[in-house]
Amino acid sequence: MAAAPASSDTIASSSGEATSVPAWMKAMTLLEKIRTLIPRAFRPYYPRTVERGTRSAKEAKSWTCKVCNYENKPTQHLLFDLPATICEECCFPPHEGATDFDFCFADLGMNDFCPIGHVKKQIGNTCIAYTIASAVEVTHRVMMILLGEEEALTKYGPFINVDDLLKKYAKRCSGKGCEVGSITYGAHSVIDMLSIMRSDGVMGLENGCVHKIADWAYISADDFTAIITALANGYPLIAGFYCGKRVGQLRPGEIYVPPEMDSVSESGQRPVGHAVLLVGARQEGAEQIVYFLSSSGEWFCQRCNEGDRIRGGIGAIRNKDLCLPPIQILRFNESHTQMIL
Predict the structure, then answer these.
(1) Where are the alpha helices (DSSP H) in 219-323?
(2) Which Gene3D superfamilies does the annotation name (predicted)?
(3) How far apart are CA 328 and CA 306, in angstroms?
(4) Which end of the chain is more exposed for a tag (fewer CB within 10 A), N or C?
């Protein structure tokens, strides 16, 4: 999915002769071979060990049960370890603050690469398409790192042709009887666009390849443990919430509280749905927060204005305020039914 870098490798062609191919093509060939394997019933499946780089300032810690004195250690995951939610010995709940944690993809490193390669700026009412593109790109970056193909990644990550996705979505809508000027975007659009990514694929911006996804799966919006487990294992999650104009004023460290769905502003406007990509989570006591990557550009909720790190585009919201159940794009040869480890 990334643009072809200058480096290349030598492999045997169908005729048996050695030929030089770019690294991204070799990586994609390997991905296709992996996808033909028998689906595994368990997650995670990692072809190699990933070296962690920059870490969160609030890592999960061990805690000792006040009833049986058992030391409950964090469970290991790809990007971030999570605290035990109950005592593994006697099932007694933890004391206050014992299970607090905080992590975001923008602050984590995998083999010297950030899982987020690019913060997008949507054009018009197209947040769903841009969010899906970001989900595919982040998923692809993680897969390439797991496969040892970091050289296939550019500094700003792979770029999906959002215009091609929108054109194919418009064509699908017209096939259902919708006129060009009456095409709408909503929860149904998420499924339609994911179906396009799975069946038809979407063109890349630079290398002309068609990029597809294997499949996707829902995660219950009420299952915070499942959500943070997926995120800790490096899966970005497509989600959404209702928002008003004040979302544009969000600042780093603030938690966005959306307006009521049936509320009306002074100007007569009702809240609109906004698709985002979940890229982290935080827990402080009973408060459960998720971090989201918006498609409003790096100026949104800007964290810094210099350096190579992600400068902005990431906000925070309470998990209970999400209005679209998180959707996980499956990678490699994973099955729909997976056990959370």
Answers:
(1) 224-232
(2) Cysteine proteinases (3.90.70.10)
(3) 32
(4) C
* CB crowding 22-49: b at 16 or more within 10 Å, else e: bbbbbbbebbeebbeeebeeebbeeeee
CA distances from 305 to 111, 145, 299 (A): 24, 27, 9
**The dihedral of CA 289, 133, 190, 273: what is its sign?**
positive
Sheet strands (E) in 39-151: 40-42, 63-64, 71-72, 101-104
Contacts of 32-35 with CB under 8 Å at 24 or more apart are 34/332, 34/333, 35/214, 35/332, 35/333
Domains and CATH numbers, the chain: 44-50+106-339 (3.90.70.10)
Question: Tens digit of pLDDT for each residue in 43-75?
Answer: 445 555 566 655 666 899 999 999 999 999 999
- Which spans in 100-223 are helix H? 127-146, 162-175, 187-199
Which residues on neighbouring strands pair with residue 278, listed in sequence order?
237, 292
